[in-house]
Design brief:
The complex is a heterotrimer of chains A (645), B (210) and C (250).
Chain A (H helix, E strand, L loop, with lengths): L14 H8 L5 H4 L3 E5 L3 H13 L2 E5 L17 E2 L11 H11 L6 H21 L14 E2 L6 E4 L5 H18 L3 E4 L2 E9 L2 E9 L5 E5 L2 E4 L20 H8 L4 E2 L4 E7 L22 E5 L2 H8 L13 E2 L1 H5 L9 H16 L8 E4 L1 H7 L1 H19 L8 E10 L2 E2 L12 E3 L17 H21 L13 H18 L7 H15 L6 H21 L11 H25 L23 H4 L1 E6 L8 E6 L14
Parallel strand pairs in A: 1-2, 1-10, 2-6, 10-18
Antiparallel strand pairs in A: 3-5, 4-5, 7-8, 8-9, 11-17, 11-19, 12-16, 13-14, 13-15, 15-16, 19-20
Helix pairs in contact in A: 3-6, 3-13, 4-5, 5-13, 11-12, 15-16, 15-17, 16-17
Chain B lengths: L1 H18 L9 H12 L1 H30 L16 H4 L1 H25 L4 E4 L2 E4 L1 H8 L3 H28 L8 H30 L1
Antiparallel strand pairs in B: 1-2
Chain C lengths: L2 E7 L8 E7 L8 H14 L22 E2 L2 E2 L21 E5 L8 E3 L2 E2 L2 H8 L21 H11 L6 H5 L6 H13 L7 H14 L10 H5 L7 H16 L4
Parallel strand pairs in C: 1-5
Antiparallel strand pairs in C: 1-2, 3-4, 3-5, 6-7
Helix pairs in contact in C: 2-6, 3-5, 5-6, 5-8, 6-8
Classes of the chains: A alpha+beta (645), B mainly alpha (210), C alpha+beta (250).
Chain lengths: 645, 210, 250
């Protein structure tokens, strides 16, 4: 199968405007007769559902939470990028485009990224008009801050709760459309399959999570905005419910899954404290501006720290190993996320971890307090210190923080073309669940930008181009053999799980899977590890289906059943991630292969052989998936090696 | 609640000013004259009817409110402490209010009803014969149990006011960083000073006559 | 540490429900409250019993989904945190802990500790937005907003919609939640156009959902995990009275 990205012809800065002026439209009277399903109500889903509702389509929106406002976009802290150049510091659409391509380690599509940079400006206008309370300067104008990897101040923010404020803005727009009955909201519903009729996505099978009822919903197009799959690692900064099920089901029905191995690991998270740990909490990366990262030089000190016999204070300066400053004298503690993360893992694997699990390094503000004074440190980081103290029960003004990297964002996802349509006609993917804009690595404050760009300003145009052919189709019936079949399959899976009566809880298998993924497909990967990981995951899959135990029935709120359905898909995805990591014989962004590094241990890209999108086609149970390649062509940006020495 | 409450608060202040004359050392002359004037001033008569009306309204609205609020939580908690984050008075305005109402009824029966419809002793001042309200009060306060009843009732009024005063402003939307602390202080002061002065009257009169 | 839990179990909305006692042992003080429930649930599952159903999602105190009434207080004994941010170090070995769902007519129980909070969604749908279609916005900096107003609006907007205010209030009143949204939009110039109808419609919907009325006890403010002030309620009252007096709705 040939993957056609459908990038419009013409110069990069004209493509989108050209596209918009030539795209097919659906007239307002016809929009009323067209149904669109949206899965997920995060930034991408809520903004898409609201905007399509405003346009006049009949939208059905689904979320598994109790309210659309709970989607995990809400947890984003830092901010949202936009090429407004309000600071007059030389920013432009081109610069945002360039920074995003470079930050993505030259593995994203030029056309998509340029469009993202263009519409970034409209997002801020739209959000302000909705009443999103962005931070302002005393003159009443919008404030900006700078973020990692760029030289301008282009990040708009609302304290440390930008994601919350943007999501509540999109949620309020959605609420307005629900009131106007253009959008029907289905809370506590989980999509369990897509229905494909005559090669087109025409509906979904969803489970009502309260009653267990399996419902059929038809539409002329289906939009997935179901988020990322970081929870395949069990422990991540994702919400407990974040899952890959919707994306995985459509993959199994023919949609390609692109670049699944690209995983962003965030270096400054709170470490795990024990086996009971369910989730990892992220702390803003800005901490590395003034904190110094270290572990003990002597192993015996590390061991005593792990046993809790001594504290950091008892280790003298000359016995501390500031390994980032040692290895990267130019950037020191400010090396990019992936580099900092790998360096921490390297030290901990060597036995120098500083907490009881041996998986933590120090982030020390003692030096900053000496240099700037406690008040200055408090003014800058006070709320983060408070958050740390709440969770870790240690005063970071007295003792250094303990941090460890954690899975944060997944750049891979469903393969989409310029229209955000997957290779299945009528099936769209937006936000984190597609693969398109961040390449191999996402820059800070770009996830919110992409989610809202897709939902407010891209999809509502591109979907019309497809739906223009559907104005005479009429309502799609749910009484068809395709719906029967899909529903029967879903019911069969559920019956199997509920009646399995094994001996182990779902979490047991999820933790096992997470462990394999973290050890062998995490921050650093190698051929041997990946190969054994694939085998181990296949075994976990067998064990899961043989021995999982789900109490209760389908016909009720059954949290274990919900988890089981999700974990079953995570297991299969985990295997695909390992396969993708195995085929990608290079190191780039969120993918580091130990075999491909420079002498100093830096990532080594291979642009000659791997400047492509790796899109996987599902070939059926027990058959290996097939890799398709979409070549990445760079006409406007020159590919360069990153260096932080 | 807030508007009627505020009216009743104003009434309390005026009522106190009048009643404090009971303990002037003139054997009740100024109090009796004051009572006489009040009874014969048409404006005061209107206000007094209004006062009854507002008490009634305050009660009726509070009953409606309580019914609505009880219905809002049909099943209670097995363990509930979160209310302890709010003051005791604020959580028990209904109970306090009911007890205060009982007091008001007895109070009215004891004095207002007696004066208006009972056989009242008369007294002469400068040739004019008027009702000797002072004597009724004085006799009533000979009974230490009666005095105790008044003191306790005033404590209840105090608690009721401690929440009611500032709450009325909040309900009316009057909350401001600058003024709310002042309102809270005034509310507290009012809810202590007024009931204490009221309670002093029976105590002083009891002590004077025993 | 070893603990005794007294947990509300209710099979479904029509079940009567009761408190059931459980023992959990060897809990680390570093464990979060929800992780402690995870441990209990895992034990229950492996015994073939039904685990306790409870709402939770982000586990970092921002999604507003977790909602447990712990030992008589929403989100437990510590101030300004959600249930998921509560750690077991706030309890002592041997403690007995009561865990109940939010109790309110407007929040019917779905199962165990899970309640239906869609009433909040319907209140927002009644008017908690600025009616601006995508694409019709002017340039963001054409509308300077005094920093002090923007900051106040932000403070109101940090509400996570968890419902602890309703759970804490002796009247099960939703005034703090509603007023936070009304305030956010009343403070900003973008909200002025629909100011009157917004407060009227949202308050009407709030009453329709069966929430009680505010008697200014202040319990909501004390229990709000985001520290939202009852100043918002006063502001909403102000907005409401002035809308009632001057709007064209008869």
């Amino acid at each position: 199968m040939k993957l056609d990205s459908k990038i419009p012809k013409g110069p990069i800065d004209k493509k989108w405007s050209q596209y918009k002026s030539e795209v097919n439209l659906v007239n307002p009277a016809n929009k009323r007769h067209i149904d669109v399903i949206v899965i997920g109500t995060g930034l991408a889903g809520a903004s898409a559902a609201a905007t399509m509702g405003e346009l006049g389509y009949n939208v059905k929106a689904f979320c598994f939470q109790d309210s659309p406002r709970r989607a995990h976009s809400i947890a984003a802290q830092g901010g949202i990028n936009a090429a407004k150049n309000y600071q007059n510091d030389g920013d432009s659409v081109y610069r945002l485009f360039y920074d995003t391509i470079k930050g993505g380690d030259y593995r994203s599509r030029e056309g998509n990224v340029h469009r993202l940079a263009e519409v970034s400006r409209n997002i801020i206008d739209q959000c302000v008009a909705q009443g999103v309370p962005f931070a302002r300067e005393y003159g009443g104008y919008l404030d900006n801050r700078s973020f990692g990897g760029v030289q301008v101040k282009r990040t708009f923010y609302a304290k440390g709760q930008t994601g919350q404020q943007l999501l509540l803005g999109a949620y309020s727009a959605l609420a307005r459309q629900i009131k106007q009955k253009t959008v029907t909201m289905y809370n506590r519903h989980e999509m369990l399959d897509v229905v494909i009729v005559d090669g087109k996505a025409r509906g979904i099978i969803a489970r009502n999570l309260i009653t267990g009822e399996i419902e059929r919903h038809s539409a002329h197009a289906v939009v997935l905005a179901s988020g990322g799959y970081g929870n395949v690692f069990f422990l991540s900064t994702n919400a407990m419910g974040s899952n890959v099920t919707a994306a995985w089901k459509v993959h199994k029905k023919g949609a390609m899954f692109a670049n699944p191995c690209y995983t962003q690991i965030h270096p400054t998270c709170l470490p795990r404290t024990g086996d009971y740990q369910s989730k990892l909490t992220l702390m803003s990366e800005s901490l590395r501006n003034d904190g110094r990262v270290w572990v003990p030089k002597k192993k015996e000190d590390a061991v005593r720290l792990q046993k809790g016999e001594i504290t950091a204070k008892e280790i003298k300066d000359e016995d501390r190993d500031f390994y980032l400053e040692r290895r990267y004298p130019a950037f020191g503690n400010l090396v990019p996320r992936d580099v900092a993360s790998r360096a921490a893992k390297e030290r901990c694997d060597a036995g120098f971890g500083v907490n009881k699990t041996g998986e933590a390094v120090f982030l020390d503000f003692g030096y900053a307090i000496k240099r700037m004074g406690k008040d200055a440190v408090e003014a800058k980081y006070g709320n983060l210190f408070q958050m740390y103290e709440k969770i870790a029960d240690e005063n970071p003004y007295e003792l250094p923080m303990k941090i460890y990297p954690a899975v944060h964002y997944t750049m891979g996802g469903l393969w989409v073309d310029y229209n955000l349509m997957t290779n299945v006609p009528g099936l769209y993917a937006t936000g984190e669940c597609n693969f398109s804009d961040h390449g191999a690595n996402r820059l800070g404050a770009s996830a919110l930008m992409q989610g809202l760009a897709d939902g407010y300003f891209v999809l509502p145009y591109t979907i019309g181009n497809y739906l223009a052919d559907d104005i005479r189709t009429g309502a799609i019936s749910t009484d068809s053999k395709e719906f029967d079949e899909a529903e029967a399959n879903v019911k069969k899976t559920i019956d199997q799980l509920v009646n399995n009566k094994g001996t182990k809880s779902v979490d047991h298998f999820h933790k096992k899977l997470g462990n394999v993924m973290w050890e062998k497909c995490g921050m650093a990967r190698n051929k041997e590890g990946l190969k054994s990981a694939i085998e181990e995951i296949q075994q976990i899959k067998k064990d899961f289906w043989a021995d999982v135990l789900i109490p209760g029935t389908n016909e009720e709120l059954n949290l274990e059943l919900e988890k089981a359905l999700r974990v079953a898909d995570f297991i299969e995805l985990g295997e695909l991630m390992c396969r993708d990591a195995l085929q990608r014989e290079e190191s780039c962004g969120g993918h580091f292969r130990e075999e491909h590094q420079t002498e100093e241990g830096e990532a080594l890209r291979n642009d000659d052989d791997f400047a492509f999108v790796g899109a996987w086609e599902y070939k059926g149970e027990g058959t290996e998936p097939e890799l398709h390649k979409e070549e990445l062509v760079y006409e406007n940006v020159e590919m360069k090696q990153r260096s932080y020495k | 609640m807030s508007l009627t409450g505020l009216f009743l608060i104003m009434f309390l202040a005026v009522h106190l000013a009048g009643n404090l004359q009971l303990i002037l050392p003139d054997e009740g002359k100024s109090f009796n004259l004051y009572a006489h004037n009040m009874a014969n001033n048409p404006l005061i008569q209107v206000v007094s009817k209004g006062n009854f009306f507002f008490i009634l309204l305050h009660v009726v609205v509070s009953i409606l409110l309580t019914r609505k609020n009880t219905a809002a939580r049909p099943i209670g908690y097995a363990a509930s402490k979160s209310a302890s984050k709010a003051t005791w008075a604020s959580r028990n305005m209904g109970v306090l209010g009911t007890l205060v109402l009982v007091f008001i009824v007895l109070h009215l029966k004891g004095f207002w009803f007696e004066l208006k419809y009972g056989t009242t002793p008369m007294v002469d001042y400068d040739g004019e014969t008027i009702k000797n309200a002072f004597l009724i009060v004085k006799e009533a306060y000979q009974n230490p149990l009666y005095v105790l009843f008044y003191v306790i009732s005033m404590a209840l009024v105090g608690f009721h006011l401690s929440h009611g005063f500032q709450s009325a402003f909040q309900t009316l939307g009057l909350n401001h960083v600058k003024y709310t602390p002042i309102i809270k202080f005034l509310g507290l002061a009012f809810s202590i000073v007024v009931p204490v002065l009221f309670a002093l009257i029976p105590i002083v009169m009891y002590l004077q006559n025993s | 540490m070893n603990l005794t839990l007294k947990v509300w179990r209710q099979k479904n909305a029509s079940d009567k429900g009761k408190i059931v006692e459980y023992k959990v042992n060897d809990i680390s003080p570093d464990c979060s409250f929800l992780e402690m429930i995870d441990i209990l649930n895992n034990n229950l599952v492996e015994l073939g019993d039904e685990p306790i159903a409870f709402d939770h999602d982000c586990r970092e105190g921002i999604c507003g989904m977790c909602s447990m009434f712990i030992n008589g207080r929403p989100h437990g004994p510590s101030d300004e945190i959600t249930t998921c941010q509560l750690h077991m170090r706030s309890f002592k070995d041997g403690d007995t802990i009561f865990i109940e769902p939010w109790r309110a007519e407007g929040f019917p129980v779905i199962k165990d500790l899970t309640v239906d909070r869609t009433a909040f969604d319907r209140i927002i749908e009644a008017g908690g937005y600025v009616s601006v279609n995508t694409g019709s916005a002017q340039d963001a900096n054409n509308l300077p907003i005094p920093k002090i107003d923007a900051d106040k609006a932000f403070d109101s907007a940090t509400c996570i919609g968890c419902g602890a205010c309703v759970a804490a209030c002796k009247n099960a009143s939703a005034m703090l939640f509603v007023s936070a949204k009304v305030s956010q939009l009343a403070l900003l110039p973008q909200g002025q156009v629909e100011r009157k109808q917004r407060v009227e419609n949202m308050v009407a919907q709030m009453d329709e959902e069966g929430f009680g009325s505010c008697t200014n006890t202040g319990a909501c403010e004390a229990e709000c995990p985001k520290g939202i002030s009852i100043e918002n309620i006063a502001r909403m009252n102000r907005e409401y009275f002035s809308a009632k007096i001057s709007s064209d709705n008869v």
